[in-house]
Every structure is written in structure tokens, then in C-alpha cells.
Amino acid sequence: MFAIFKREFRSYFNNVIGFVVIAILLFFSGIFATALNLLGQSADFEYTLSSLMIVLIFIIPLLTMKSLAEDKRNKTDLLLSSLPLKSSEIIIGKYLAMVAVFAIPTIIMCAYPVIISAFGIMYYETVYTSILGFFLLGCALIALCMFLSSLADSQVVAAVIGIGTLLLLYLATSVIQLIPETPVASFIALCATALLLSGAIYLLTKNLNITIAFCGLTIIPLSMLYMFYNDAFSNLFPNIILKLALFDRFENFVGGIFDISAIVYYISITVFFVFLTVRMMEKRRIN
Amino acid sequence: MEGLFLIEVKNLTKKYGKTTAVDNISFNIEKGKIYGFLGPNGAGKSTTMNIITGCISATSGSVAINGHDMVTDSIAAKSLIGYLPEIPPLYPDMTPYEYLMFVAMAKGMDKLSASMQIRDVITLTSLEEVKDRLICNLSKGFRQRVGIAQAMLGSPEIIILDEPTVGLDPKQIIEIRELIRRLGQMKTIILSSHILAEIATLCDHVIIIHKGRLVANDTIDNLEGKMDNTQKLFLTVKGETKAVAKALAPIESIIEISQIPSESEKIIELELEILKDKNAEEDIFFALAKINTPIVRMTPHQPSLEDIFLSLTDETDFDDDENEIDFIPRENESEKASEEEEYKPLFSTKTKDEEDDK
Question: Same structural domain for residues A65 and A119?
Fold first, then answer.
């Protein structure tokens, strides 16, 4: 695992990608910090981080695009799978390398509050917990985008899918408000989501039985619940999406709250997508 | 059986959707030999090799490396194998040295023994001059050698090379063959190639795959021996075609005669398919002597690996038992016929002798 980590980490700096990612993050964090904290005379570094989330949407897919798609093009996936390593070691090695690259600008950012403190009073506890939250958000996004990279055959496709998905997640909370609060609307939205998920499952597994089983197991209980507990459905879908929204979870940190549930949520998202990527890699051997 | 063979492949089948790439292949690999994997393009060589090395999984069947099953005990099995896939799996942004260091570390070696072994491997594959240049700037030949070097790291028991000499210049090919031969004294090597001469000079044992099925699995000597059931004879005589055909017709040990167009009209060139050990040569001599037709030249043709390969891979219909090889000579050799214009069959007798001989 360490060999994979070392190689991947170095490859980000043999290549411009690593430098570009770090430079862009530092550039924008610098601009935001100057505008909001120094010129805006505010001690809340959290606002800077909150603005930086938009940059993450474009930077994270750039970082992850080559992680698995490149191996397919170079045919180095054959080398990796012929080495005496487990799939999980390979994927975790790659994942940690990306996290390490992302950690570099995050660590540099830790110096900003110290600089800003020269001009006013800093609440270090809240600032550093929100930097931790920001880092964990980044880790979760990296895991999600790495999984998307494992689906794509080329880096460009991986990057485009990644940016699209992250943008959708970012805008999800605004889009959700378009859905009416009535129970019917939530029911329809949930069924549509179930169908979309089944479609995704079919594309990934090519197994019709699993797809139908998943579809049945979600839609039938949903319909039954809808019939018996009609009221519970009002505004249910927007609430679920708000609970799942990756980016919005970060707002609690901005508000100065140390949100344990958000941290647990980010870590579980990370574990879930790393696990999915491992499964994808193993599945590719079968096909 | 366990422990007897280094690699045991049992009833291996690999299906891609509805197409069957590898169809129920079984064979064993013994220690210390060089094996040749032969087959036309798309025969399933690379797929089989990918399954043996654990890069892809089989639809059914099993592979065991020195008793370690590739599915249930894959780490132990994989650590016994060095593999060079068809396209060398290289990272273009690394130098060969860095790349080899990465592979050595990934194979679980410590830094000291890794650097010592890398030095040896670089010397063996003559990579000294390029070891600090980026792989993306290397020529195909050097890349291939880096790939072979990578397979040799960690001193695996088995080295599997998928078409190792493709894309090399003749001098490099000779060097690589020499390297493989040297490696073969210490290790078990499986080598795939469609260059028959290469297999014939390097390998002790040949496995021929065609359309995903095993058509032959034997030593080169045995394969040639089996082919010797019938033999080809090139005959050049001075005389009339009709008279010669008439004189040769009664000889039972001749299965088939075809005429090769010759330069002069008086000289007839014939290609004969005869049964071995039936004194056909003598019969032909006396028959032609009787009609006063001088034999200018009579050359027996030793079947090469190429003939065996062509005759086995041209059989599109298989018997139920894939290990039984059909040695009935082919009626027309399409490739040679096109080279030498047309063959004119004078007559053809499918004799009972042939059946008896088998």
C-alpha cells in the first residue's frame, strides 16, 4: 500500500496536476481571505472557507480524474492487478495520495488565522474545527470523484462527470425548493430517485435481477408507507436531501458549531465510496 | 497432484458476454521448463495469460500456482509470478529506475535488497544507459526491456511474457531471446508469441491454442514426430506429365500428388504427400526408371513447427475430445498455393493405409 501511495503522490508532482491543484486552492483562499478577512475587517475565517467550497467543485475532479482512468489507458491496471497486492490496498494507496495532495494547501491555510489574528481577536477553536471540517469535506468529495473516475475510461470524461456531479450536489439544496411541499410531490420524487438508482445499479452491475429486486424493494414499501402514513410524506424529500447534502453540512461549521454528526457523515461517505471503488476494481476483473 | 506441477490450469473458461474467449482449457506447467504459447491472433492467448496471472477472473475453472489457488489465495499465488502483459504496463512519467523501485516495493521487498536486485536486473536487460531517462522518451525496445525487467523483480518462480519480442529490432530480438534462454535455466517461463521460429528455438514445450480451445500440448519433438505420419516429398523429373502421373498412380504409399508450375516445359515439379516408412522413395525411383524418366531431384521435406501450427489451426471443426489431434493432411494449403500460383492435383487417393497407420 505504501509503494502505491508513494508512486501516486510523486506522480502528482511529476505532472503539473499536483502543483495546479495546490496553486489554485492557495490563490483563491488568498483572494478570499484578503477580501473577507483583511479588507472586510472580519475575524471569521470560516466565511473564507465557505466561499472556497465553489473552488472545490472544480479542483477535486481535476485531482481525481487520473487516479483510475489513467491506469486503464496506460494498461498499468494489468500490472497493479498482477502484483501481490489486494484491490483494497491499491485503492486506499491511491486515495491517500490524493488526500495527501489536498492536505498540503489545507495545512498552509492553517497559517492564515495566525496572520489574521494580528489584526484582531481570533477564536482558534472554531477556526481550526472548521478547517478540519473543510478538509473532511474535501476527503469525502475526493472519494466520490475517485469512484466516478473508476467508471470512466478517459481522464476528460472522469473530470466532466466529476464536476457535473459536484455542481449538482452543490446546487441540490436550491433546486430542491422547487419541489412543492405536498406529500404527492415527495412521493413522486422518491419514486423517481429509486428508479434513477435502479438505472445506475443496472449500468454498474448489468444484472437485471438485482435491479428489479432493488426497484421492488424500494418502490413497494414506499407506496405502502404512502398509503398508510400520508402525512409523513409532506416535505419529506426536501428534508432528506438537506440531510444528505454534502456541502450544506459545512454551514454548521461556518456558524461556529462543532458538528460531530457532519464529521461522522463525511467519514461514512468517504468509506462508502472507497469501498465502492474497490468493488468496481474487482468487478472489472470479472468482465 | 498438488506440488507436482508448478501451475495447474483446470477447465478454464472465460466468456465475454456471449463470445467465448477461452473454452475449457486444462494444462499443467512443470518446473524449470520454457513453455511456448502459440496461436493465431484472437486465439485467447492473452486472455489465458491474464487469467493465470490473476489479472482477470475466469468464468469457470481454476488456476493453482504451486498449490495456491488464484482466487482464494491470490496474494501467495501472485507473489510467485512475474508478468509482462502484451503492452508493457509502464508509467510514462517515471524513469526506469523509479519504476523498477516502485514495482520492487509493491512486491514487498525492502529498500536494500530492492536496489541490489534492480541493479542486477538492469544489467541483465542492458538498461544502464537509459535508467534515468523518463519512460515516455524511451523507444519501444527499451520500454519492452523495462517491462521484462519488471517481471524479473522479486525473483519469482514463474515468469510469464506475453509476446516479449514484438516491436524490437533484430539485434534486440536476439538479445531478448538470449536473455530468456538464460532465465530459463533458473526459472519456469511461459512465453507467448506468434513467431514460430522463436518458439521453436526457445521452448521445450508447446501449447497451441486456437479459437479459445487447446489443440496441442506437447514437446516440439513429439509434435514433429506425430506429423511425420505423412511426409512431403518434392520431386523434379524430366518427362511428360501424363506419363509420370500414370507411372506413379499404382504406388500405394502416395496419398496425393500436385504439380507446381515449373520454369521449363521439359521439367516437371511435383509435390507428393507420402506415408512414412513405406519405402515410397524407392517405389517412385523404380516406377520412373521403368518409363525411362530421369529424376533430377528428390527432396524430403521435414515438417517444421510452422506446418504443425498451420495444420492444427486450420482445422476449424473440432472433435469432441480436444486433446485428440487430427493429423489428416489438408487438401490444400491455402497460403502456399497463393504464393506459388496454382497447384494442379493430378490425382488424390485417400487410402485405407492411412487409417491403418494411425
Answer: yes
